[in-house]
Amino acid sequence: MLRYLSRKAHVYADRHIGKRAATSESRGGGGAGIGNVHHQLIPTDDSSLFRHVAQPRTVSVIGAPMTYGQPFVGTDRGPELLRERGLLKDLSSLGWRVEDIPDIDFDSICAEAAKNSNDVHTFPNAKHSLQVGAGCSALADLVESKLRLGRFPLILGGDHSIGIGSLAGILRSNPETGVIWVDAHADLNVPSVSESGNMHGMPLGLMMKELIPDRSVIPGLEWMETESQYGSGPPRLAPDSLVYVGLRDIDKAERRFIKQLGIKTFTMYDIDHLGIGRVMDLALDHLMKNNPDRPLHISYDIDAVDPSHAPATGTAVRGGLTWREAHFVAEYVVKSGSLASAEIVEVNYTLSDEDGADDTVELGHNLINSFLGESIL
Ligand SMILES: [Mn+2]
Prior knowledge:
With 377 residues, the chain is α/β, with parallel strands linked by helices. The protein has helices at residues 10-26, 78-84, 87-93, 106-114, 129-148, 163-173, 252-261, 268-274, 276-288, 323-335, 354-371, and strands at residues 58-64, 97-101, 152-157, 178-182, 242-247, 264-267, 296-301, 339-345.
């Protein structure tokens, strides 16, 4: 089912997506299946929610259409497809002031970063590190500046290598931030152990000083060892400030790191065993019990969800979250009142048939509404 599109296939992919977008529009932009009932969104006026966000609450929508962290084109259309579905209007219906920022121009930033390099892979086992690094530096600056204004950054990927930039900006703004990583994969690789060299598998590994003490050895990531314009950083994530939810495909080295670092991990096995409710109780308890005032960030890889609901993604793995479990994770984190930023990644319209692509984008849209406070009652 998965078609590999090389970078040279950009033109083909663009035509392909253009056709699909037109078809989608002719159907009213709706999804294909039974989930396509549009219900009324109600403003979230509960003042106990989003207590780290300044009033009146503003969401900063940051499109991060990155593709260089993995081999497929198509993830760059994520922000556009989510906006086409009426995402901004929904956020406003949920009671947010919406700051819509133009997508980060990775085409220019990445081309500029790589212009003096003719080596495609630039560094052993960190493919396109110049492009990923330059793009993530721009994203980190933007995310940090929005958090410092008291806004809620909503980051639309893009592949998961943008997590390098999001996490960097978030941790520079507040190094105490707790991170909930919802994913089929651990994304805890570093170049010395990565089996693929794809940087979408490294965002968490690159934040851990235990795994890589000096990131300036990787071309493009030198900025990660310096201070930001606000004098903060370098960004690091403590292993006990992270919890995983939904893992089911872990590399050998990652398995070792998770155990060595003692990272709190809830795999699909734990969700089968305990149920998603108990898992989320334990996950938030781990992050909040010694640090009740910290903000939380959720990074949501759409491949955490079962491919029956989210087939249009680059590294689909069977046995994932159900539709309701997927939403519950987001709703529960919001209910804590501590969510301060969110990210959704790896939606790739080209990697499934049309109905599957529509379903995946629709799910991403619904999850974002949950991040920003939509609830059943
Ligand atoms: Mn991921």
